Amino acid sequence: MPFRLSHDEPDFEGRFGAFLDTARAADADVDEAAAGIIADVRARGLAAVLDLTRRFDRFGADENTLRISEAEIDAAIAGIGAPEREALELAAGRIRAYHTRQAPADALWTDEAGATLGWRWRPVESAGLYVPGGLASYPSSVLMNAIPARVAGVSRLVVAAPTPDGRANPLVLLAARLAGVDEIWRVGGAQAIAALAYGAGPIRPVDKITGPGNAWVAAAKRRVFGHVGIDMIAGPSEILVIADRDNDPDWVALDLLSQAEHDESAQAILVTDDPGFADAVAAAVERRLETLARRTIAGASWRAHGALIVARDLDHAVELANRVAPEHLEICAADAEGLAERIRHAGAIFLGAHTPEAIGDYVGGPNHVLPTARSARFSSGLSVLDFMKRTTLARMSPGALRAIGPAAEVLARAEGLEAHGLSVRSRLDAMNE
Amino acid sequence: MPFRLSHDEPDFEGRFGAFLDTARAADADVDEAAAGIIADVRARGLAAVLDLTRRFDRFGADENTLRISEAEIDAAIAGIGAPEREALELAAGRIRAYHTRQAPADALWTDEAGATLGWRWRPVESAGLYVPGGLASYPSSVLMNAIPARVAGVSRLVVAAPTPDGRANPLVLLAARLAGVDEIWRVGGAQAIAALAYGAGPIRPVDKITGPGNAWVAAAKRRVFGHVGIDMIAGPSEILVIADRDNDPDWVALDLLSQAEHDESAQAILVTDDPGFADAVAAAVERRLETLARRTIAGASWRAHGALIVARDLDHAVELANRVAPEHLEICAADAEGLAERIRHAGAIFLGAHTPEAIGDYVGGPNHVLPTARSARFSSGLSVLDFMKRTTLARMSPGALRAIGPAAEVLARAEGLEAHGLSVRSRLDAMNE
């Protein structure tokens, strides 16, 4: 049964707090195994990558077949039907339009002291995008990672994707082509992350690695962080729906199940101000669970991690949502915008009953790579900024150095850094000569 | 002797590449030790923090003395002289003015499909700033970390700083007060990071941790990353100076030594187009090393990691600088701005002969927390954005859902996510009824 709690029950606070603290990540501790794989790839390069690919993906690639050729891509995508192709093109166009607006502005100004200051954004030169194999091999994720990189101006964009038994997902290949990916390598797991970070034979290293992955991939990303940039460490994902009684319980049930069907450790939470509506949604979820293709996964997620919470009112619902800091937040109520205004922590907000979270997964435009497991408290979804970096600029006129240099000298002396102080003093003395 | 290389020597490329690949980080592998300390603090909370503080800092704090009281701060800063106080105030004002310009803009628009899209920035609620004890206890770093957090709107700003033998640095306390820090705790090392991430007795957990630290602090930050946000993993820092012959060799020598005096693993590199100028700078460095207070550290850094590189011309110098991706880049040449335009990777650029890097360490305005060890290829200096996060917004009108919903449905089906598709379909069907 999903967790159920109402504001008028005894110890609501304690029980809500305990619910929040329940860990959902059941990741195996594979940190040492990942470290071993990284060391192997650094030591043996391509040979290690080929060995591990044979072992984990049952695929005997060699130096020439490790990269998926343009001809292979052509052949694979030729069989894709028009509806799928058009849907991916529509999604790519909308994602590109949204992310193009994120391009940051440079700045340069001269202040009253005569100091010219500013900053300038430049793209990361090369980026590697990890695409999981198996169940979670999603073409939509390729678009969501690759398009912001291209909009940022990344010049070399690489995909690493395991191809279990040598089979690649044609829609993933099409998404990579639509997004302008330059190279696709048939390699997965920690060995893919190691190859992207340090290079391996024909796989040249990249500067930044993004994309979701299993526990090995996550552990490897944590390990290579610092040598290259990484996006975030993705945890189990969640949705929180705030809905009042003026909603269709079946729509809300399907939105909850959209999250639950991803993964047994996913979490779907309804917060409503009406106990009768909570009952109706619970019933609708059970009805849908009877026929849903992924009912085993969705049912396990719903029973283990699902929640129906009855808040005092919609303001209370907003407060509870802030404490959850959900990856996805739907607000289905008359004044959705007014309630959203007071949300401080959420990866993405979907406003109104006609904005199911699934729209955001595919065609809305905003990124679907979002902070999970309460990390919306301190991080943001993937964006163009993740593929750019800022250089600060400063030029002192002689007058500016005269005005603020002495303070730098005082602070350098206070910190015991004599050369710092002298580097300012030698210039000031020359000006006074 | 510092490394010396000229463009006209045989195998310039190979030798420059080998120089780039030379690792300078000699951090002990303290990952397991840090993990043990984090586990101890999570299990025993305050008791563990007090035990570790007694052991590592020789300071027997209890629950009441672990936090530095306002009265203690008042007493400590009363003895600070006017020049130091005024210099810190000038620095704080300039840093605040620069960072205030970084406040990001929200956006909201409606596109031709009828989808209202956008994003919104909100501050992280609480942030913890680590301030090292001992040699590297720098008041300027307190300003550089705390002011962007305050400008971002962080509501609770906490400092953790070891106080070896119970002694706190008065200038650090003054900087914390000027920057508006709310709490200062006498705790250092991995135990400080654990307490900030998970809480320990009176130390409530924070959402984001920033600030420099030794190998234990770095390992602990890497471990808690994901549960809380962190800034970057700082490595040994570096400066690269591009200077032509029309510069004072002594000024450039002092700028190189400003970096070298920080730390034996720091790196100072001159790239010039004139071999005679390289000789003159080398001689000036040696002269200054005779008298510099920190000549042991600066000399060790210069001999082990320093470099004098003679480029073909200033364009070649720019190309080499891009390959180094230095934390600090000074450009002392007539057309500094023109050369800077082609720099793709650098944490901060200092333009012209009157902008010694030391100005940027203290009073320039831009942040001095910058990407080290070539990570300017993929990351930026600390900024207001590090203390904010972005929530994306989406609202579909019924018409927008009709226009783009079917594509989402197609993609959901292609990815085998039936509930995703049904969440769109159920709404479309209701509209058609």
From TrEMBL, chains A, B:
Binds 1 zinc ion per subunit. Keywords: Amino-acid biosynthesis, Histidine biosynthesis, Metal-binding, NAD, Oxidoreductase, Zinc. It comes from Pikeienuella piscinae. GO terms for molecular function: histidinol dehydrogenase activity; NAD binding; zinc ion binding. The active site is at 327 (proton acceptor), 328 (proton acceptor). PANTHER family: HISTIDINE BIOSYNTHESIS TRIFUNCTIONAL PROTEIN, HISTIDINOL DEHYDROGENASE HDH. NAD(+) binds at residues 130, 191, 214. One of its GO terms (cellular component) is cytosol. Its EC number is 1.1.1.23. Coiled coil: none annotated. The keyword Isomerase does not apply. Catalyzes the sequential NAD-dependent oxidations of L-histidinol to L-histidinaldehyde and then to L-histidine. This is Histidinol dehydrogenase. Zn(2+) binds at residues 259, 262, 361, 420. Pathway: Amino-acid biosynthesis; L-histidine biosynthesis; L-histidine from 5-phospho-alpha-D-ribose 1-diphosphate: step 9/9. It comes from the Bacteria. PROSITE patterns: HISOL_DEHYDROGENASE. Substrate binds at residues 237, 259, 262, 328, 361, 415, 420. The keyword Signal does not apply. Pfam families: Histidinol_dh. InterPro entries: Ald_DH/histidinol_DH (IPR016161), Histidinol_DH_CS (IPR001692), Histidinol_DH_monofunct (IPR022695), Hstdl_DH (IPR012131). It catalyses: L-histidinol + 2 NAD(+) + H2O = L-histidine + 2 NADH + 3 H(+). Belongs to the histidinol dehydrogenase family. GO terms for biological process: L-histidine biosynthetic process. Its cofactor is Zn(2+).
